Amino acid sequence: MDRWHTGRFVLIGDACHAFLPTGAFGSSMALESACVLADELSSTDLQRIQNALQQYFERRKPRVDRLQTGSRKMLKMMLVSNPILTWARNKLVNVALFKPVVKEIKKVHEEPF
Asked: CA–CA separation, 36 vs 62, rounded Å?
């Protein structure tokens, strides 16, 4: 979605950036968006609401896009149906990916929104 607002109407949470359940980010991203929107609106006046709404979009969009992409990749990896690929995926996750995945999760939760 290229825009999350029109006039004085603004979308937030799943209405503008729904996440797959595999990402486990939906509710936390909605809360982050609410905080960013509140921050933008609290520092503006009625004449500049459009600017505040655009700032909200610009602050949130890159992070939302990055996490949605990661969620889609995770889903593809989780839904492998070939038994050999499933076995390889499970070994790879246990051996090679556990630490990087944990590192990425920590990074997501530590970075400012």
From this structure: 13
